[in-house]
Amino acid sequence: MTEQKLSDTQTGPGMDRAAEPAPSGPGGPAGPAVPGPEAIAALRPLGVDQVRLHPEGLLGGWRRRNAEDTLPHCVDNLRGSGNIGNLQAAAGEGEQPFTGMWFADSDVHKTLEAALWELGTSPGDASLEAFVEDTVALLARAQQADGYLNSYFTVAAPEERWRRPDWAHELYCAGHLIQAAVAGGRAGAQPVLLSVARRFADLLVERFGPDGVEEVCGHPEIETALAELYRLTGHRPYLDLARRFLDLRGHGLLGRGRFGPRYHQDHQPVREVREVAGHAVRQLYLLAGMVDVAVETGDLPLLDAAERLWVDAFHTRTYVTGAHGSRHRDEAYGDPYELPPDRAYAETCAAIASFQWNWRLLLATGRARYADEMERAVYNAVAAAVSADGRRFFYSNPLHLRTGHAGSGEEEAARRLPWYSCACCPPNIARLMASLPGYLATADEGGLQVHLYGEATLTAAVAGRPVRLEMRTDYPWQGRVELTVGGEAGQSGPWTLALRVPSWCEAYSVSVGEETVRAPAADGYVRLTRVWTPGTTVVLDLDMPVRQVSAHPRVDAVRGCVTLARGPLVYCLEQADLPPGVVLEDVRLAPAAPITAAHRDDLPGAPVVLSARGVLADAHDPLYTSGASRERTNTPLTLTAVPYFLWGNRTEGPMRVWIPLATTG
Amino acid sequence: MTEQKLSDTQTGPGMDRAAEPAPSGPGGPAGPAVPGPEAIAALRPLGVDQVRLHPEGLLGGWRRRNAEDTLPHCVDNLRGSGNIGNLQAAAGEGEQPFTGMWFADSDVHKTLEAALWELGTSPGDASLEAFVEDTVALLARAQQADGYLNSYFTVAAPEERWRRPDWAHELYCAGHLIQAAVAGGRAGAQPVLLSVARRFADLLVERFGPDGVEEVCGHPEIETALAELYRLTGHRPYLDLARRFLDLRGHGLLGRGRFGPRYHQDHQPVREVREVAGHAVRQLYLLAGMVDVAVETGDLPLLDAAERLWVDAFHTRTYVTGAHGSRHRDEAYGDPYELPPDRAYAETCAAIASFQWNWRLLLATGRARYADEMERAVYNAVAAAVSADGRRFFYSNPLHLRTGHAGSGEEEAARRLPWYSCACCPPNIARLMASLPGYLATADEGGLQVHLYGEATLTAAVAGRPVRLEMRTDYPWQGRVELTVGGEAGQSGPWTLALRVPSWCEAYSVSVGEETVRAPAADGYVRLTRVWTPGTTVVLDLDMPVRQVSAHPRVDAVRGCVTLARGPLVYCLEQADLPPGVVLEDVRLAPAAPITAAHRDDLPGAPVVLSARGVLADAHDPLYTSGASRERTNTPLTLTAVPYFLWGNRTEGPMRVWIPLATTG
């Protein structure tokens, strides 16, 4: 364990240990702290085994659905789509010609990572355990003698190994293998998998390290993976290589073809770039790696660069659902304020990557704005990507499916599909949902911080004593959260329970026991400091009125529209709730009329829908008319808005998040 | 000449003979009429040699600029970019490895077509004549023994000949070769070129004809080209093959790969399809071919299908500039009313193809709406694609270049580029501009019809007597058009001069000689029937107030915005006319304030600009805020709008056609 580097202090490294490193196995306590002298960190993560999400709640329900439906579905599809067969061929055990995308291995790695997080919180699923055991053994057999592991470049194109850094995704696949091994290391004991990953990582250090070639991968992922592997193992060359990959960007190594350097985030050095650009998922994974390296090396300018890009991304290029990437072409970020709802590419993986990037920034800085964006993404852009049954997925997540939409391609599908030829998104959802417990709360030397609310039980060490927090809430349907302190809370001396007040919340109340307390939020958190008597219940009651949300005036695409929201949830209109024959694009919201939240029994998974007054616009105009538009509205109608994350679970049909306001009567 | 099939009757074939077939050479009279029994045609085209566009006018200035700048520029670039070298290699005369796109020959063919139209109206340019002579001779030498002519599949990939109908563009290139030969046949004598084209066309009939393979080309063009070659030669197998290519569509021959059948307009048979779809240029060329075949074979259901698709395209998917294709991805049509100004792909070639399609429909039906759309396209979408100096071009023609636009790719360029790696657009502009005279007016058995106004002299036979029409106007800057009748007009008996009243015009007056006449427009034309005394001047005075144009309420992307227009011209705001530091997206138009047309000397080529009152919106909001937008506006400012076709000719910078209306004081 001499190389292990763990932390529970404010300055210790703590990035993306969705589970605290848990060398003693799943559910084990966090290890001893050996923070590096230069590391930056405000908050320390809890392990996935320290938080139990109860399935009665929405987040806990998603986690359970992920375990029971999404994960087995992914495993089935890896087998059916040939991903497992590719690795068997690489191991010399089968005759299957290479099948699928050349980066198909990454789907296996991500599913494996998901399975490892899942088993780390809820061991005992024999089928999942068998998948892990078989897959780890297969990876070990498919690994080449020198440590190389990639079925495409072993089976289909061995002569191309390391030859096409722009497109080969070799380091991207290696990164996901390493992330699986890190999950295995934190959420359970997976020495074989860790050994496979380290052998490959050692090969990377040899080839790409200080004495090696100057190349970077066209698709980031390896940067954050190597930093994570360093955290797990303490082996410094991994971190140094991650940093080297970052430093090599912006020097003309990528994007000489039609896609150009911006697509690959290679147009400027990472410390100088001022705008997010290019392929959104690549940009966001790269940013996660930037934060990882920054905090582990104490590189404040690099952290500043990441935060500067955060401001650019979240002030000018993020959808109200938390989705990123407004262009189908190149799956890319657009210009500032270019946020079309209908052609939102909004790739599922980009929302997940944004969640992971914000998590890293939250740990590094403790700033609530990052938790706000995690919440926005997980309840909207990420959640909408999965069907209610957990077995169908969106790749692209538009905010408006137009009447007459003719999308049949995978990237503009009008309905969730069971699998994709480029299946990056489904297993990415699986690994996020499986590790969800790890993102609810953090610790620091002063106490505990709760960032996301849900039915859950947390245990964490505070001043060396095990403290327990029982969270009871119907969040996000209701804003009331009860937290009961337990365990040895009383023996920890005074400590601070910090509760996030989401940025959408304008009024709230706090009581401790029977007593209502004045607790002004500072920097997005209510902080309650005292010697806690076990059994004390804190109630945070967040006002949750229906909100009309407007976009910045420069967002041309939604001028004159509002989004309906309540709590963290964005709502939408669906064709299924409109009278027959009404075209969704003709619906207008009556601006002054009240919008109410209503209980609804007949819509599984959405106990709260919104009810509003609308009118229909006259659609008999020609395409262009002289004279300023004097839109005529007539027929009044009652509108029902349902949570965006649930759209497309009834009949297939048009949907829109941004609703035009009626401009006349 | 027995196979020649010409017409000057109302029912005779007359499609896209921008010049009437002129077997006796440029400037020669229209030939005798041998209309096929089944042909459909309302109007008969004049030859390019029958209309002289004077360079003092805007259209005539464009034609001259095309001759003096664009065409020589294209010729230079064909040489510099390797297109000529490719054909030399195919002729066995050089060592140049194949260079450029695999359909690079089509750029040569289109430039050749442009040169032939140009020489047909204005012979005597020795350099252009040399280009034609050299190129025709080179094409003859590059042609294979069996008639095949395509440098890529001769030089670079002979084993792939006819192997990849989806992507090879072999028939597309053949089509452009044939179009050049047709131009040569109509605008001058080019027997060698016609022979080359016919040898290739005969090979196509042999391979793809009734006894041949069932294949179609992924990129339409051959359909209209073969119909045109039939018109020139009267050789029926060309027309039958064009029809066969149409009939074979929609039966699963194309689009088995990632692009799918819609991209290739192969998802439904052409007579059944109800919406324009897929790659916009391909769709529009196909539609031109549908009209050609319909009118030549008397196929009313096919013509109906084309008109039905016209309604779909022009009522739901056309930009206010006349541009088509709202998606960068796949260069495609979007969903109905999906018309984002910033991400308008609006390929130059699509606007040209739309112009050609509308011309065919105008000739077939005589309906003014088709001339209206020709006018919209030529003055806006097409014209904007060329720089003021005629030597730079847009491929994509957005209606909004955002502040902060980072486009560097050819398809999202922030400024016109001198040439393109896929250089389809510049020579396409050249061939349209060179043939422009042919689109101004038509004839039928009852008289003459003027569709587009400009400084020009027309000569045409009316009742067998040569009639002359002198057109004097400052159109489109002013709405007054003077037409003086001359020639042997008086000997023709009574005939009808039909003058188009554009759909944008709400009031106009007409006088004949000294007399103001009541002349209500019927179906978009004022029709003046009388025995014309030579020297009589008709004045059509079209009111040309500044218009605020609104889009259909379903066009979400421009809600709350108007376009400023005057006459046929769409105007735009450019950064160059804003005070320093003002962000274009913050500019609002004061809705009630008058907008005036003003003379302007300092803007070359735009004597009339528009002046309006604006205000600036407060841009200090976060990206999303709770509460319906209550946009705050403050600083008033004077706005100058310039013709869209002239944008980007001063400094590079943001531009917008759709201007948001201020919603508050």
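The two ends of chain A are 72 Å apart (CA to CA).
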